[in-house]
Write a structure and sequence with these properties.
The protein is of the alpha/beta class. It is built from 8 helices and 6 strands, in the order E-H-E-E-E-H-E-H-H-E-H-H-H-H. A 6-stranded mixed beta sheet has the order 2-3-1-4-5-6, with helices on both faces. It is globular and about 50 Å long.
């Protein structure tokens, strides 16, 4: 298989590191070579968090190079836009539409850009864009805290995702606290179904 490079971008408290760990653990279950890296911005809750996951024989280093991402999984729109250097025309961008304005905007008295502006910026790099109200789907699953599982399900639904669906579910069952497993599996399924339905309307 060709290498698969994934960038997960959002803010602290959204479960990004757990999501990256889940993909890595699932890849190991499938016998795949995998590298996972974490890049933290501001340490406190709400600061930028980016994680890179590289899967395949060529994944010797853990960092995704500029333009090499197969998938950018955006947990927050502005953080997605900040990580577009990883994208190219081959990249699928899955972006949660819920905005979490960073403290720095208020400090600099600047407005959060409109969602349309962010989408326009993404289209400079790629037209393979899926907008998902992941926070709403998480609430539908039973808890807003399952946002990361919704987005993992969305990621697992794209054509080239290299990890088996059941391996993803298994890694979630192992990593999530036992009492929250059913909620997270439900959230995962909702994200997966959302993107599968979108794929019937557009090919990417």
């Amino acid at each position: 298989m060709s290498d698969f490079n994934m960038v997960l971008a959002g803010v602290g408290g959204q479960g990004i590191l757990l999501a990256a760990e889940a993909v890595g653990a699932a890849a190991v279950k499938d016998g795949l070579n995998v590298r996972v890296s974490e890049i933290h911005g501001m340490a406190q809750r709400g600061g930028s968090v980016v994680s890179n996951v590289r899967i395949g024989e060529g994944a010797l280093a853990s960092t995704v190079m500029d333009g090499d991402a197969n998938l950018v999984l955006g947990f927050e729109p502005l953080e997605t836009a900040r990580n577009l250097k990883s994208a190219s025309e081959k990249t699928v961008v899955i972006m949660n539409t819920e905005r979490i304005p960073p403290v720095e905007l208020a400090m600099k008295n600047r407005q959060y850009p409109a969602l349309e502006e962010i989408v326009a910026k993404i289209t400079v790099f790629t037209h393979k864009i899926v907008l998902i109200e992941a926070s709403e789907l998480a609430k539908q699953a039973g808890s807003a805290l399952t946002l990361n599982s919704v987005l993992l399900g969305a990621a697992a639904a794209i054509d080239d995702f290299p990890v088996k669906l059941e391996s993803m579910r298994e890694s979630l069952r192992e990593l999530v606290p036992q009492k929250h497993v059913d909620l997270n599996i439900r959230a995962f399924q909702l994200g997966y179904a959302f993107v599968k339905e979108k794929k019937d309307q557009q090919k990417y």
